[in-house]
Design goal:
single chain; DUF951; about 70 residues; alpha+beta
Length: about 70
């Protein structure tokens, strides 16, 4: 069994499996490397997760960074 790596990029808005206590389930990827830093789009709280843990907890990409730039 080969696991498919989830595709995400810096600036993407992603949906996580569990919602944040503020009620929002959308997070913006603000730092990438061995660890991923994500920021809640509701309250602005940021969390640093190891990449493996982030990939397990991420459901899908809601808005890609490229789409955001074309709208602005």
């Amino acid at each position: 069994m080969v696991l498919q790596r989830k595709e995400f990029a810096l600036g993407d808005i992603v949906e996580m499996k569990k919602p944040h206590p503020c009620g929002t389930n959308a997070w913006k990827v603000i730092r990438m490397g061995m660890d991923i830093r994500i920021k809640c789009t509701g309250c602005g709280h940021s969390v640093l997760l190891p990449r493996s843990q982030f990939e397990k907890k991420m459901k899908k990409v809601l808005i890609q960074a490229a789409e955001q730039e074309s709208k602005e």
